[in-house]
Amino acid sequence: MDSLIDPTALQTLWFGLVAFFFLGYFVLEGFDFGVQMNVAASWRRGPGTRGTILKTVGPVWDGNEVFLITGGALLFAAFPEWYATLFSGFYLALLLLLLVLIVRVCAFKWRDKVDDPRWTSTWDIVHVLAGFVPALLWGVAMANIVAGVEIDENHWVTTSLLGLLTPFALLGGVTFVLLFWLHGSLYLALKVTGALREVANRRAGILVWPTIAAAAAFLVWNQLAHAHASWTWVPLLLAAVSLVAVVPLNRRRREGLAFAATATAIIGAVVALFGGLYPFVLPSTGDPANSLTVANASSSEHTLTVMLVATAILLPLVLAYTVWTYRVFRHRITDEQGPAPGSQLLARAKQGYREAFDQE
């Protein structure tokens, strides 16, 4: 490797940290997207059931987005050249993704503010779009990142928007949609009781087969055509075994283990994609000299060192907060019209805050 490709240990560590935050985002936000997709599949069961479905992620979805915000910020600070080049070529796609994520926040916050069936149904449609569209865009984006795009000598992407929609990229988008939908269906089965739980389990049993087929085609295609390492066969096989394991686990209604299996499959897939990409961060399909690598796209060693100290302090707090949140809101929803899980604890916390404020 020449000096532009051979990274330092610190640069490699930061590549791994960026990959870790996107891995956490896809595992956690992936089932959020999947739950929202289930709103479409359960549309005929009425607004009460749709509300129950959304309550399963109501307490955690915004916390899951912390991984995207943190990962994006670290990408900007640690690899500014990578960040800038991505936006030069994926600007419209990333802008669409940002708009959908903003409207998604409104859907979560405003859906139950007005007691009107048309109001509720409108926001439920937004929830459905906010489940499918980001999953599709993330799959297309990740496929283009690992496969590479046309980059000029100024590190500007010259591939058009239509040029990003290659068969490989579209397969990536379909794979992400199916994988997140399956992941979200298993999460839903884990969080509800009664008829809705059985519906979610049956849906997962149907979704697992096309998910296995799409994921196998996408990951093997990437490994054979675009990966720069052979060790990434290991996480690829881990993802394959985990997805196949969902079939018997789902039939035996081992919902917790089945959900853990899809989470493991996402982890294996993301490790295979990022591991196969290294030491590049955005390969050029034209002149290889224009490719962005971990070495030539990173910030200075001083910047990376300072950021590493800050991350070592803040990362445990983020992880502890995430674990605590899931522990508090771990209960199943048993009543379609009942309160969200953990809402009583939240109400007591708000009441305590108001009383303390009044005393001041």
Structural class: mainly alpha
SSE order, one letter for each helix or strand? HHHHHHHHHHEEHH
Strand proportion: under 5%
Main beta-sheet strand count, sense and barrel state: 2 strands, antiparallel
Share of helix, binned: over 70%
Radius of gyration of CA atoms, rounded to a whole number: 21 Å
Helical run tally: 12
Spans of at least 5 consecutive residues whose pLDDT stays below 50 are none
Strand order of the largest sheet: 1-2
Q: Give the overall silhouette.
A: globular
Q: What is the CA–CA distance across the termini?
A: 65 Å
Number of DSSP strands? Answer: 2
Q: Averaging pLDDT over every residue, what do you get?
A: 90
Give a topology summary:
Elements: H1 9-41, H2 47-55, H3 61-64, H4 66-78, H5 80-110, H6 117-147, H7 167-191, H8 195-225, H9 233-251, H10 255-277, E1 280-282, E2 292-293, H11 301-328, H12 343-359
Antiparallel strand pairs: 1-2
Helix pairs in contact: 1-2, 1-4, 1-6, 1-7, 1-10, 4-5, 5-6, 6-7, 6-10, 7-8, 7-10, 8-9, 8-10, 9-10
Description:
Helix 1 packs across helix 7 (167-191) and helix 6 crosses helix 7. Helix content is 73%, strand content 1%. The mean pLDDT is 90. It has a two-stranded antiparallel ribbon. The chain starts with 8 loop residues before the first helix and ends with a helix. The chain has helices at residues 9-41, 47-55, 61-64, 66-78, 80-110, 117-147, 167-191, 195-225, 233-251, 255-277, 301-328, 343-359, and strands at 280-282, 292-293. The chain contains 12 helices and 2 strands, in the order H-H-H-H-H-H-H-H-H-H-E-E-H-H. By secondary structure, the protein is an all-alpha fold.
